[in-house]
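Researcher: Next sequence.
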Amino acid sequence: MSDGKAGDAPTGRDDEAGDEAYARRLAAVVAGHRGEAAAAERLLDDDDAGVRAAALGALARCGALRADQVRQALGDQAATVRCRAAELAPPEVELLGLLSDPDASVVETVAAALGERDRDPGPVAELCRVARSRDEPLCRESAVAALGAIAAGLDADAGPDSDAALGAAHDAARAMALEVLLDAMDDRPQIRRRALLGLHQFDDDRAETAVRAGLEDRDRQVRAVAGELLGVPVH
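Model: Next structure:
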């Protein structure tokens, strides 16, 4: 007889609960494909985190996911739900605070989502902090990628008719991003690859030097990225 200690095989009751949760997750997915928003919405408060995450996705598929529902999900106790909410968050939903989330998967997802809002300089300072200080490599990689995307978007906004104050804010954000991308060239190979893609967006001597230095990187894939960016063969 089991004494209930950790490591014991799951009980029949646990199996049954798992099967029921799976059935509800499946129901949420089906509701999304059928456009049954009301059925999906009823599952947003389910006891199972997987069901709640699936319900968010179903509502998004239906075109019925509201900003207030996303904001509530961003405060969910389950990281998987917070991640799904960040992926689906519309631009008017603030994500910046979740870059301090204790769960690395949430920080990684939020950084990626912010990178897709590529003409907003607001997150740059926090993304720089993540890229420089988070212990988890995936968090740093996601932040570095986001900084490159945002920097490219801010550069595209520049023009003779742009507002002077806005242009100054964009320049400051790009300058911060540049410093972090340069520093990231001393990080792990996958982060160096992301940094190269971002640095290639800059018309800056240091950025150009860093990209060219990538041709001599000790990692073959980093060298390959640099070669592709510069249009030169890499051995």
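Model: The chain has two domains: 14-93, 94-235. The domain at 94-235 is CATH 1.25.10.10 (Leucine-rich Repeat Variant).
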